[in-house]
Amino acid sequence: MAKKLLKLTTLLSVLLLLLMLTGCPPKVVYYQLTVTTDGNGHVDKDPEPEEKGYLKGTAVELTAVADEGWEFEKWVIDEDVVTDNPYTITMDSDKTVKAVFEEEQPTDKYTLTITKTGEGTVDPAVGAHEYDKDTEVVLTATPAEGWDFSKWVVGGTDVFENPTSVVMTSNKAANAVFVEEEPPVGPFPKITNLSLTTEDFMVLQPCTENLEIRFQVAVSGPESALVEAEYKVIHVSSGEFVAVEIPEDNWGAPWTYKISNNFLKDNIGNPIPGGKYDITVGATNTEGNFSSETISFYVKYELSSLEDAWIVDSEDSQIKVVEGKCVVGEGDPATIGATIFFDSKITVRIYLVETSDTATLDEMLTKGVKIQEKAFIADSAVTEDVEIELPDLKPLMDADTEYNLLVLLFTPECGALGCVSCGIEDWTLLDCDLVEDTVPSIECLPCTCPDPCDPCFVGYNPGIRINNVLSTTPALFDITLTIGEEVIESGFTFLELADALEVRFWIEEGTLDATPSGDTDLYWTVVTPTGVELDATCTILIDFEEPEAEIVIENCCVNEGITETTFSVTFTDNVGLKRGKISATGANVVLPDGKTAGTWFALSGTETTVEGTITGITGEYTLIVETEDISCFKSINEKECGINTPPM
Length: 648
Fold this sequence. Notes:
Elements: H1 2-22, E1 30-31, E2 33-38, E3 41-46, E4 54-55, E5 59-66, E6 70-77, E7 80-82, E8 87-90, E9 95-103, E10 109-117, E11 120-123, E12 127-132, E13 136-143, E14 147-154, E15 157-159, E16 164-167, E17 172-180, E18 190-196, E19 201-203, E20 212-220, E21 226-235, E22 241-245, E23 255-260, H2 261-267, E24 275-285, E25 290-300, E26 305-311, E27 319-322, E28 325-328, E29 335-342, E30 345-354, H3 361-367, E31 369-377, E32 382-389, E33 403-410, E34 424-429, E35 433-436, E36 441-445, E37 463-467, E38 478-483, E39 486-488, E40 493-496, E41 500-504, E42 518-527, E43 533-542, E44 548-553, E45 565-572, E46 577-585, E47 588-590, E48 601-602, E49 607-615, E50 621-629, E51 634-641
Parallel strand pairs: 2-9, 10-17, 19-25, 28-35
Antiparallel strand pairs: 1-4, 3-5, 5-8, 6-7, 6-9, 10-12, 11-13, 13-16, 14-15, 14-17, 18-20, 20-23, 21-22, 21-24, 24-25, 26-29, 27-28, 29-32, 30-31, 30-33, 33-34, 36-37, 37-41, 38-39, 38-42, 40-41, 42-43, 44-45, 45-49, 46-48, 46-50, 47-49, 50-51
């Protein structure tokens, strides 16, 4: 019995030891994840839960998937809001998650994305373009030389019309497809020697010149017989044309053909439309191959007119308009702008004319100098703004002489020998007299009453005079004054003279952030109305400070037996000392030779020390020091001495 009890006790001991060494088995914990939705959509969970839920510590990725027409807005996790999607949640407790979806708001704009395949241009250009809802957009494809348009691919659908259009009811994509042209297969007719044998300009106004346009050409079929040939005369802007058959007898060798004004009147229009005309010669051979060549000419039917002319405003132009005058100075050559009506070719001429020679057009053309000429060409009757750059005008002008610019429209074909005004269709003088700019200068001006000791002195008003200027209107100048770190752009006073402008600035105590003292540099910069930049540094003496006197008395204590003591006075001033006076009450003052107590004596420099003796001390006394500087500022300093006064 005892043995069994011992065995049982031993077994229990072993079990207890094992339990102590290994501990209790861990408890398995699961948490529940509850997911709901608000709106149209669902939530995917990765991983899906086990039958008991999610094991403690499991990371679960939640992905919100919105239905069509809806979009995910946020997660509501217990009381927290999260917008990340997907979102990972760690199961460390029971969780409640709500996925919130909201309806997509209808958009008012859509994007059209344009691309292309092959070589060519597209309109709209390649790229993304935003349009309002329901906008109809026209798509146009233009092939490059050697390429053909094949089709548009709009939203995956082939569209062979060009141009075509799309209506923006959603985002759309359109691709223009270009393909290379097939190389031509000969033989082809030959068109050679196509050229004009007359001038290329038929003039019907303001004179009649070149009423027949002649051209020559040879059409042939060296490798295959021709079946037909013709030339067309086409008015380019209107598209009106007439076709003329080239007879078989004229094939092979060059022949000359003519186009008269009557031919155009009968076949193109009456009156004859002015502008550009193309002569296109074409031929077809027995293989059906076609060749063509084109040459052009112009017809002037209507008189040209000059509606306006002006100087083009430019910061760098050598012409600046100042109070109604055109001032010619330094800078880039000026440009003349003009509004002109013309129907084919017109030449704009510009003359520089002295104002005294502008009585008649003939006088201006005879005495003026032609300084520029430029021709303009149009396919049809147009009114347009043109620009003509002028040469440098300064070498062409004399000082103190006024000029004008004459702008005229001219047809050289109508210019007759000995007739200075023939061929001129319209003209105008620019409404601005030209004068050569002067050479301005700048000089410093002292204050109107520079001496503060003078009764006329009321303050500091230094300034500058801008000399030799064409205008003295202050508002036309750009003026700045720099004193120390402070830049001043306003508050100036002005005096307008005949050919100069005086500018002054009042400086008083407190006018500037930092009160100037002593010799002060004033840096002036000026831009004149014609853009000339000037600058000057002017130095003036400015003084707002009183002089000072420091009194030192060797023994200021009046005790029994002390009847005299020495003293010193140090005079100082920021700009210069003028005079001083030392006196006393209750005692006597003895000064060095040349100086008398109670009388002004001369001082100089910015610091001077005067020593003396106080005698006749019997009780309390006061030493009085008066000082005056070169600006006539005065100061009084006093020192009282008495019984038990400590030494100073």
